[in-house]
Structure formats: structure tokens, C-alpha cells
Amino acid sequence: MEQHATGRLSLIENVVPPPPPPLADLQRSATLRIHNGAGLRPLPELTETVLRDCWQSRRQRSFWLDLSAPSQAMVQSIANLFGFHPLTVEDALSPEHRPKIDEHEDYLFMVFQSVAGISDETVLPTLGVGHCTTNRLAVYLGVGFLVTIHDRGFAPAEEVAEIVDARDTTMDQHLDLVLHAIVDRMIDQVFPVLADVEDQIQEVEARIFTESDQDVLPTVLKTKRELMTLRRLMGLQREMLLRLSRREDLPFIEPKTAIYFRDVYDHAIRLEENCAILIELATNVAEAHLAVASRRINEVMKFLTIFSTIWMPLTFIVGIYGMNFDYMPELKVWWFYPFVWVVMIGIVVGMLLFFRRKKWL
């Protein structure tokens, strides 16, 4: 009996509890805002039932579901609940997916990327796409709904959420305006980053002419590579914003909102041009560093060459009189030793004067 009881206890202890459902952490990772036509509706606890009700009544009251660093299972469950294509889930969670816009029957799927900030290790951050730390924003936009997916601490979404909470009429069937506000802040936050990059490149340029810094060239080349990555990112995003600003048969974007996207498109063009200017500046700094390094090497080689040239005749003279011959009559003359010294000193002085006259010194 005791063995049977022990066996039952061990079986109970070895039972692994079932994993929590994918949507169990909605309250922690998601924020839901519902507009009922007169203002934001107060929300109960965020559950799967609430999301299903929002989806079914989205044409009567619009909603914005903001997901911050969700798990793949959670995004997949929401995609199944809302009828999103499974491939969009993979694109939404991929940290290195290029900016894109896909048109589906009932919604638009978009991926935006932007530089998150600047690190102290290098001129630009060193993680994420290429060598830049980026903010990734995946968007589902349709009639009456907006779903945004991003990493934790995404400032543009937090700022727009505060505006929506203060002026809730923004969501009254105008979710494309909410999307514009997020993307606008996402693009604009790159400008101060590039300004810091320019300042640091100029500091590196000043160090080139004031000190011998062996780490300058790797830093500049890494910065140039990161700027090229950022320029490529902005180029892809510029094409997306051009489509949104022209609408080009894209549904769910109102004509009056397209004008606002045109302004963001202009900002993207400016960023791309600024990246091109900074790339050229970094190239000039790298070339200046190579020129300064080459000049320093030439100075060292000139000194060593002059030193070797001066020592060649002295070595020749010393080598002759250092030979062990029995018959060298000049060695018997008492004044020959100081005479050799005078000759060697004269050679050194004469060669230095000659080099100085030729402006080699």
C-alpha cells in the first residue's frame, strides 16, 4: 500500500502544469483604445472576449490595439482572431525585415523602421538592422481598426497614445491619422541622431590633426557603413511614404490624410539627403586620416633615410681602418687619428648643410 501511495505521489509531483494560453498576458503587453462615436469608451479587463467583441463591432466603434513586445504566440493568436494572414505575423516579429507595405483584402499591412538612438560605443548604434539599433513598427490598418506591434519603450506610440487619450475624437473613424502621428514622430526622431553623428564626425576630424589616434579610421569606416545602412532604410521607407501620400489605389487612407503623409515623405527625403552628406563627410575624414598618416610615415622614413645616409660614409671609413692588416702606414702617424675624426665630423656637417639647402630637413 505504501509503495502504491508513493508511486501516486511521485506521479502527481512529475505532472507538468499546462502552459498559459497565448492571450493570458494581454493585460501586460497590450493596450486597447475603443472609440464609441462620442469618445473613448472605458474598458474592462482586456481579454480575448473583449477583443472578439471589438472585432465584430469595429464598423460601429473603432479601436486601436497597441502591442508592446508581444510573444509570437500572442501575435499568432490575435492574427487568427482577426483573420490576418500568417505570413504577416512572421514579418511583424522579424527584427531585420525591410520596410514594406502589403495590400490585403480587408486591411493594409506595413512595416516601418527608424533609428532608436545613439550609443556611446560608436557614432551610431551597433545592433539591429545592419549596424543600427532600430525601432520596428508593424501595422495592420483597416476599416475601424488599427493594430500596432513594436518593441518595449517605443516613444512615438506612447506620445500618440497620450494625445489620443486627451483628444479622443482623433480615433473617430480616422485611424489613418493616428498612424500618421506615429510614423511622423518615428521619422522625426532620426534628425537629432544625425545631428549628433555630425558633431561626433567633426570631433573625430579635429582629433586627426591634433593627435595620433590609431582608432580613428576603424571608427570612421564603421560610421560610414552604418550611415549607408540608415540611408538604405530611409530610401525604402521613402517609397512607402510616397505610396501613402499619393494613395495609389491604397484603401483605408483618406485623401486628407494623404496630404499629411506627403509631409512625412518630405522629411524622409531630407533624412536621406542628410545621410548622403554625412557619408561624404565620413569619406573625407577617412581620406584626411590616411593623408595625415601617410605624411607621418613619410616624415619617419625621411628621418631614417637621412640618418642612414649620414652613417654610410662613416661606416665605410671605420670599416676600412678596422681591418686587421699588418701593414697600414698611416696608422703610425701621430696626427692621423684626430685627422680621421675631423674628416668624419666634416662629412656629417657637410651632409646636414646639403640636406638643409635642399630643404630636406
From TrEMBL:
Pfam families reported for this sequence: CorA (PF01544)
UniProt protein name: Magnesium transport protein CorA
Lineage: Bacteria, Pseudomonadati, Acidobacteriota, Terriglobia, Terriglobales
Membrane topology, as annotated: Multi-pass membrane protein
Gene3D superfamilies found in the cross-reference section: CorA soluble domain-like, Magnesium transport protein CorA, transmembrane region
Annotated compartments: Cell membrane; Membrane
Membrane-spanning intervals of the chain: 303-323, 335-355
Stated role: Mediates influx of magnesium ions.
Xref: PANTHER family: CORA FAMILY METAL ION TRANSPORTER (EUROFUNG)
Region annotation (Disordered) ranges: 1-20
SUPFAM superfamilies (alphabetical): CorA soluble domain-like, Magnesium transport protein CorA, transmembrane region
Keyword Cell membrane: yes
UniProt family annotation: Belongs to the CorA metal ion transporter (MIT) (TC 1.A.35) family.
Keyword annotations: Cell membrane, Ion transport, Magnesium, Membrane, Transmembrane, Transmembrane helix, Transport
